[in-house]
# Entry
Amino acid sequence: MSIEQVVFFVLGFVVLASALTVAASKNLVRSIFMFFVTLFALAGLYVFALADFVAITQIVIYVGGVLVLMLFAFMLTNKEVLNNLQKSDGRFISFRKLPALLVSALFLLILVNVIIKARPDSLAWIQASAQNANVIQATDNMVPNIGVGLMTRYLLPFEAVSIFLMMALIGAAHLARKEEHKF
Amino acid sequence: MSMLTYLLLIGAGLFCIGLYIVLVKRNAIQVLIGIELILNAAILNLVAFGKYDKLYNGGQTFALFAIVLAGAASAVALAIILNVYKQYKTIDPNAVDQLKD
# Structure
């Protein structure tokens, strides 16, 4: 086992373990900060999939934007209410949680089965791209290619996303404003 | 098994943990965290397959779009959570059971 594989599996373990801690934690602040750890480890996995630009974007947008928003929302909503809310039961597995546990465990079973049966390494298009040397190598720099692609091949989705982003911005500002006159 | 398979398996695990969080948590912010975990599992799959598209970078480009959409969605969701808190004084999704008037 090479050192890369060790780091890869450690990162994968950290992703799953911290996500499980988010699920198990009673404390909202602790779960938000474990979510932070999950996002960082996921950025590491993106680097292993040779998508360094996506990894940096993940850190900038999620850790810089979404997480701060979540902390803001936590601080603006009352703390005592949250504490009372979480005191219902202490155990991880309880009767109330059993259906959800069952649903997610069975879904995991189905997904793992599908992935193993599909054998993604021997898919036709992946074999073809490996033969045509269309696989990204660790020495390649993909950032210029992504930039050119955004302005040529992916221009329409790029513009659609920009319009969507503006709509979301206006919608969020409209929702968060002080209501002075009722309709 | 190659790295692609392991990435897909990690994505599947992340998706199911997110699903569990969405179903179980009684706090809108934690439900939102679950949704973000599900979105991240999808982005992980896009990135994992994007390695095999050096020419057009389809997977990585759409992973970027998905990250942007997730950021916009969480901003709107948090604005809604703040409004719900103003109205009901709680952010338990089970307690929110009335339409306007």
